[in-house]
Amino acid sequence: MLVFKFGGASVKDAQGVINLGKVVSAYNGNQILVVVSAMGKTTNALERLTNAYFNGTDDMHPIFEEIKEYHYHIAHELFGEGHPVFDEIANTFVEIDWMIEDEPQDDHDFIYDQIVSIGEMVSTRIVNAWFNHTGITSKWLDVRGYIHTDNTYREGVVDWDKTRASISKSIPALLNNGIVVTQGFLGGTSENFTTTLGREGSDYTASIFAACLGAESVTTWKDVPGILNADPKHFADTIKFDELSYQEAIEMTYYGASVIHPKTIKPLQNARIPLLVKPFTDPTAPGTQIKEGAVNKFEKPVIIVKQNQVLLSISANDYSFISESHLSDIFGLFAKHNVKVNMMQTSALSFTACIDYAADKFEKLLQTLKASFKVKYNNELTLITLRHYTNEAVDEVTAGKTILMKQTSRNTAQVVLK
Ligand SMILES: Nc1ncnc2c1ncn2[C@@H]1O[C@H](COP(=O)(O)OP(=O)(O)O)[C@@H](O)[C@H]1O
Ligand SMILES: N[C@@H](CC(=O)OP(=O)(O)O)C(=O)O
């Protein structure tokens, strides 16, 4: 059986949904589980809705109306008037209408997941209805009853044993009767609340289903020809990798290559399931294969750009040397605030760390660090990682910029730039 994942870009309009149907039809005769993300930039819009609800701002209703209008417009283009999918969409949105009528009572991250998850709940209704409308037999599946997580809202931790048991118990029989369409990015708690698996987590959903079902492969259908040596939105003259090892793909996602969610590869590597990254605009193109025994060929360095970085410089209040005990306290605070260090350096009197800027987390971290240390910081920086670098490539990406921190090892160079 095959697992297909279609991201937001692939279903951003009616044409995208029609194309999705064509891609799936080209694989007629296979058992296919289809994982779909929210349409276009809906998750960003739902994040804005959540913020407006929490801050009590006037734009809350207009934001929600725009989200509804966007989906109804796509459904109208696909189905015309009077199709039952309009009731399904309305019933999904109405849950949020009820929620935002009252003042927020619950924890922010809990409410975030209940609101933001609506994007995938609606997109899958539309895709499933389109399949059935065009003669593709398919069934809509509520993923929250199959991917079980703890209650870490916004970053649900998967309970693999429970998830494997649920998926293997009922999905194989469903696949015998047609395509299964389900939501990426979502999970469910034991109290039946919705969780999300972390932004851009739909790739991970596909990988969880594939691992639990022993799939032949996972294909993520993207708006790029495959995995390139750099993001084509930032670099011209990129080259595509025909194949990559799991190890190299893990390294790329670890350093921030946003084309694949970082948690996606490991479950596939463990089960030796290939991950194919292919363009949804050209289903017959070979794309990139991440698989066992792949031969990596690096004709150009891999370049990964992470924007919105902060460089924190931390020193002891009494100007003493930075000791192991200081480092242990500092890392304790990073762990407590769930902050990942992207790059770090220690000198006699200070410890410097490069982290992603996330307003709410950063302020809390800063306050707790300041209780025990002197802290200075620089924000709005860019971290560039070059795997299999050449000195010329490093010079090229740093030209005209100020380098605030640089590190090189045999395979990897990293620079923080202003
Ligand atoms: N090394 C890379 N190769 C290809 N695409 C990349 C790379 N790094 C970043 N990207 C970006 O990833 C995007 C595709 O991933 P993403 O937006 O998450 O897809 P989707 O949400 O549709 O699954 C591309 O449009 C591209 O800008
Ligand atoms: N819709 C979610 C999950 C996801 O993976 O989306 P996409 O496949 O479009 O990156 C997000 O935007 O975070």
TrEMBL record:
Classification via Pfam families: AA_kinase (PF00696)
One GO term (biological process): lysine biosynthetic process via diaminopimelate
EC assignment: 2.7.2.4
Domain Aspartate/glutamate/uridylate kinase as annotated: residue spans: 2-277
Catalyses which reaction(s): L-aspartate + ATP = 4-phospho-L-aspartate + ADP
Any Gene Ontology CC annotation: cytosol
MF (Gene Ontology): aspartate kinase activity; ATP binding
UniProt entry keywords in alphabetical sequence: Amino-acid biosynthesis, ATP-binding, Kinase, Nucleotide-binding, Transferase
Pathway involvement of the protein, from the record: Amino-acid biosynthesis; L-methionine biosynthesis via de novo pathway; L-homoserine from L-aspartate: step 1/3; Amino-acid biosynthesis; L-lysine biosynthesis via DAP pathway; (S)-tetrahydrodipicolinate from L-aspartate: step 1/4; Amino-acid biosynthesis; L-threonine biosynthesis; L-threonine from L-aspartate: step 1/5
Record-linked InterPro entries: AceGlu_kinase-like_sf, ACT-like_dom_sf, Asp/Glu/Uridylate_kinase, Asp_kinase, AsparK_Bifunc_asparK/hSer_DH
Enzyme class at the top of the EC tree: transferase
Family designation: Belongs to the aspartokinase family.
PANTHER family: ASPARTATE KINASE, ASPARTOKINASE
NCBIfam families assigned to the protein according to its UniProt record, in alphabetical order: asp_kinases
The protein's name in its UniProt record: Aspartokinase
Native source organism of the sequence: Mucilaginibacter terrigena
